[in-house]
Amino acid sequence: DQQVKQNSPSLSVQEGRISILNCDYTNSMFDYFLWYKKYPAEGPTFLISISSIKDKNEDGRFTVFLNKSAKHLSLHIVPSQPGDSAVYFCAASESNTGGFKTIFGAGTRLFVKA
Amino acid sequence: NAGVTQTPKFRVLKTGQSMTLLCAQDMNHEYMYWYRQDPGMGLRLIHYSVGEGTTAKGEVPDGYNVSRLKKQNFLLGLESAAPSQTSVYFCASSRLGNEQFFGPGTRLTVL
Lengths: 114, 111
Prior knowledge:
The complex is a heterodimer. Chain A is mainly β.
């Protein structure tokens, strides 16, 4: 039973347009959510996070939205750039647990076409 | 700072062979983790450590052992490798918070 689901294995977007990556979770104990970005042959790197007390967090071109009632979060990238082409992992955790209760989704591969 | 480093980067084993993967971090993080990444499965936690001398099982611990003798190092051992352990292995570390810093990965193939 996957507690964190990324239902789109891949997404293709034109440069300059918006990329929207989606993530759903089932465990109501999750109260901290993260997005990681991964390039080929590299480890994932932390991108942005959001606590359940917020419904939006913005960092430059990246914005994460959280809908707790729907148990859904999304990552918006505006404008998309070719360098954003990577695999994006959604992760959910119980805050202050040190990360060992973090559950990762299967990832969405984003292609940004120039 | 090197961050999180992993040794080796690639390895091919025969079924039944043993090996140890080494992870080192220079950020003085208390928490360290070993994950495996398989196609369509995301990252799954194998074992983790909340401090020097401590280890605990994650989601998929069978067939693996770990040790954390020094705060900066976290070793993952495969005593008798099986083809099902063919995967990419990532080590990560964190402070008490949730953001984790990952190493570059070790690609292991078991024939």
